Amino acid sequence: MNNLNIYYSKDFKQQWDKLPKEIKNSAIEKEKLLKENFFHPSLRLHPLKGKLRGMWSMSVNMQYRIIIQLEEKIIVFVSIGKHDIYKNL
What we know:
Elements: E1 5-8, H1 10-17, H2 21-36, E2 46-47, E3 55-59, E4 64-71, E5 74-82
C-alpha cells in the first residue's frame, strides 16, 4: 500500500506521551516499515476478532502493540501499549 495517510486518535496521542523513548523510537521505525511494506513479516500485522473486529494489530516489539483501523488508503492509529491494551478498547 503506497501513499498511505496515517492519522492518530486522541487516545493514541495520550498513550504515546507516556511511552518510554526506546518504545517510541521502535514505533517510529515500524510506522516507516508499514508505509514501505504493509505486510512486512516483522510487523506481525493481523486482523482482530470479537469486539475488536474491523481493527488490526501490529507489533512494535514483543511486548508493545499498535491497534489500527483501515479505511482504503487511510490508517488510524487507535491505541498503543502492552498486550493488555486490547482490554481497554
